[in-house]
Design brief:
Elements: H1 6-24, E1 29-30, H2 32-39, H3 43-52, E2 63-64, H4 65-76, E3 82-87, H5 91-100, E4 107-114, E5 123-124, E6 127-131, H6 135-141, E7 144-149, H7 156-165, E8 170-173, E9 186-189, H8 192-205
Parallel strand pairs: 3-4, 3-7, 4-6, 7-8, 8-9
Antiparallel strand pairs: 1-2, 5-6
Helix pairs in contact: 1-4, 2-3
C-alpha cells in the first residue's frame, strides 16, 4: 500500500470523511455512485480507488460502510497514532487547532509554537504553546512527527529548517512561500491564494 498514488490517498481520506457521516446517520451500505456524488467525482474513479486497496462490494448492496471505514483507517492511520505540532498561533493556527480537535483519533495536535510572548505558555483549545526556541526539546519529548506551518510567509524557510533539525518527518506548509526539505521529509504545500485564484478563473470563464 506504500506505493498508492498520492491523489488516491487524498481521495481515500475524503471517502472516509463522507463514510463516517453516512455511518452516523445509520447507513450500512453505499454504492460507488453515491460516494461519487458526495465527492463530485465519477463513480469510475471511486471504484478504481477502492479496487486499488483490495476491497469489493456487492451488486445488490454496494460497499459495507463500516468495513470500508475500517480498511481505509488501516491503510492511512498508524496503530499507535501520530503527534502533530502547529507553528504559528495566529488566526489560522488557532482555527486549525479548534477544527482538528476530536476529528481524528490517530492524529493529535499536542503542541504549538510561537515567538510572541503573549502566546507562549498559554493553552489554545487545550494545546500548550511553547516558544519557538524550545522546538527541538518539545518535539523530542512529545514524540512529534508532523509539523504544520502557519507563520508569515517570510518566516517559512527558517521554521522549516528548525522543524527538520528537530527530527520532524512530515511538514504541511500553509504559507504561500515554497520551502525545501531533505528527501527523507514528506512535504505537502497548500497555497490558499492559488486555490482561490483558480476558482476565480473558472468563475470568470463560466460567467
Amino acid at each position: 500500500m506504500k506505493h498508492l498514488p498520492h491523489k488516491t490517498i487524498e481521495r481515500l481520506s475524503q471517502y472516509r470523511r463522507a463514510l463516517l457521516i453516512c455511518a452516523a446517520k445509520g447507513k450500512a451500505h453505499i454504492f460507488s455512485h453515491e460516494i461519487a456524488k458526495i465527492q463530485h467525482i465519477t463513480p469510475v474513479q471511486v471504484r478504481r480507488d477502492i479496487m486499488l486497496i483490495g476491497y469489493t462490494g456487492t451488486l445488490r448492496k454496494g460497499y459495507n460502510v463500516q468495513e470500508l471505514i475500517d480498511l481505509i483507517g488501516d491503510i492511512i492511520d498508524t496503530k499507535e497514532g501520530l503527534n502533530v505540532a502547529i507553528v504559528g498561533i495566529g488566526n489560522l493556527g488557532r482555527a486549525m487547532i479548534n477544527y482538528f480537535n476530536g476529528k481524528r483519533t490517530k492524529l493529535s495536535i499536542v503542541a504549538a509554537f510561537d515567538s510572541n510572548p503573549d502566546k507562549v505558555e498559554r493553552a489554545f483549545s487545550g494545546v500548550k504553546c511553547y516558544h519557538i526556541d524550545q522546538m527541538g526539546e518539545i518535539i523530542k519529548n512529545e514524540n512529534i512527527s508532523i509539523g504544520i506551518i502557519t507563520v508569515p510567509a517570510g518566516a517559512a524557510p527558517e521554521i522549516t529548517e528548525k522543524l527538520v533539525n528537530s527530527g520532524i518527518k512530515g511538514i504541511l506548509n500553509f504559507t504561500p512561500k515554497p520551502v525545501n526539505v531533505p528527501s527523507r521529509i514528506y512535504l505537502e504545500e497548500y497555497d490558499m491564494i492559488t486555490s482561490l485564484e483558480k476558482i476565480a478563473f473558472f468563475v470568470k470563464t463560466h460567467a
